[in-house]
Amino acid sequence: MSNLELYVDSRFLSPYALSAFVVLQEKGLPFTWHGVDLDNGANLLPDYASASLTARVPLLVEGDFHLSESSAIAEYLEARYPAPAVYPQDPQQRARARQLQAWLRSDLLPLRQQRTTEVVFLQPSPAPLDAAGQQAAAKLIRVAEACLAPGAANLFGEWCIADTELALMLLRLVNNGDPVPPALADYARQQWQRPSVQAWLAQQHLAAN
Q1: Alpha-carbon span 83 to 135, nearest angstrom
Q2: Cis peptide before 15 (omega within 30 of 0)
Q3: CB 203, CB 25: distance < 8 Å
Q4: pLDDT digits over 126-173, tens only?
Q5: What kind and span of H or E run contains 133?
Q6: For labeling, which of 29, 39, 141, 160 is most exposed (least CB within 10 Å)?
Q7: What's the predicted TM-score (pTM) here?
């Protein structure tokens, strides 16, 4: 195994960097992380932009191989280091997990804008959700309830990376005091107790202080 490096945002607020960080932690792969100062445009500097291709975080480096975009990073690590798995083993459930990840990245823009990850990691937002935000929140709850079986601790029996990503999206509402069904709020809070997530939160706390 080559030395693995992960470039994340220096404030540890990126949900996508969190996802890649958690995958590495869950697989027990040793890696070195580097903070990228997005506020000052460090991701746009030529060396970083060239290495990452998309000039975004996260960026995984393994030897002379560079890969950006968190979903691509998760799938690469799953293929290269299959055990322990971060996706369901059943092909249909694995496809469902990836479907959920893709949806969380591409939809719910009003919610992501009005309940940024600062709500999850730093402090609540005083502004109420507008009509578009409320509509996005209702859609999130509908989809989450459809995907999570009553009383289930995880989406697909065993934990997978989609659990962390869904929990983070729900916590944008839960941590802000927006209405969320108790079962979904409990699910999100419990997911946040995983050691891999707690390792990220410890780094985020240090970055914030």
Answers
A1: 39
A2: no
A3: no
A4: 999 999 999 999 999 999 999 999 999 999 999 999 999 999 999 999
A5: helix 131-147
A6: 39
A7: 0.95
